[in-house]
Amino acid sequence: MPNPTLLPALARAFLAGDQSVDAIVARASETLGRKWQWVRPLARRYVTWSAGDIRPRVRDVIDFFSRDPGFRRAWSKHFEVLRVARWLTEPRRMQPAPAALQWDVPAIESVGALADWLEVTPDELLWFSDLKGLAAKSRRPQLGHYHYRVLAKKSGAIRLIEAPKSRIKALQRRILAGILDRVPAHAAAHGFVPGRSVQTFIAPHLGRRVVLKMDLSDFFPSISGARVQTIFRMLGYPESVADLLGGICTNSVPRPAWNEADGEIDPQHLYEARMLYQRPHLPQGAPTSPALANMCAYRVDCRLAGLAASAGAQYSRYADDLAFSGGEDLERSVERFSVHAAAVLLEEGFTVNHRKTRIMRQGVRQRLAGLVANQHANIARADFDRLKATLHNCVRQGAGAQNRNAHPRFRAHLDGRIGWVESVNPTKGRRLRSMFEQISWK
What we know:
By secondary structure, the protein is an alpha+beta fold.
């Protein structure tokens, strides 16, 4: 097969600009130093092969060349004279997918331009993106970009909070405000979307005969770094720029981060978590992760919305919580429908936590995202009574005695829980707020 120089040069010529056959032939001929007759048929086959929304990577084009019979014949016939006459050095231009043409994202077409846009040096850009995974291999936490906290779920599984340090967090906020916030979310996505909330997530399912609730396992860490880089290439960024943007927004967890795990955590769950988090993924705690997760789930939202419409049902998603609801038609086939929905999710790279799947008919309490949704959105009575009792005891016995979980900011914790109730049921929220204001925090 061709020497290591020829294939990368030819691949870059194919990818460099206009993807029409004539333009590709012109660039390839310039790279090879002459017009070979086999280049035009190769370009036609390449255009057919790459006819998608997202420009392929250099390595994908090289793989295409290696498997193409016509190119292999040309190589074997002209082995001694094929050479690289000129490398194309101009940067590749923005090439957004058709759907992204209307989105006003900034044009960044080179590594230097990205460094300038983020206001860092090229060396700092490479360090923050960490495409070689050096931070994950280091045993010195101070060299990493994240602080870690290991939490055990009630189910026994593990959740890892990855809090970005100040400098990389500033870069992520820049990417969020300058790029990601300009991309509209799917109509069914309600989590982390301005103007939408848990209430809008629940609204389509109020007063329905049957509600199907599904939950995704490991939503953020299941979204790989390669998938995030593909999102940036879909927006039009050249491969080198997209990889760096994806690297800044993803993380690989180093082994020492698990040293702080509670000794009571099941070793099998700890091993599974380490395997999951060691690959590049969306970190739960980075400001860019929610928007990128919604973008990565856009295709599955389209498919599930279509599946729901075919069954006369409604669909909405709040992060990793999925809800479907409908009338008699869905009620008769809801078990089969849930199997089809799970299959769609699996095909799109997500996994359903089947232990949390619930089919809720009108005769039972229909609960979504912590709220009761039978007739109107409301706080569950047990949750309200539990918070009310905590506030009552704080007033009588002092707040310290009620902080059984040792929340470092217990006052803010209670304030947030009351605010949540106020947003759903203002009347009940006012009663709790009155009790909260009577607590002595000395």
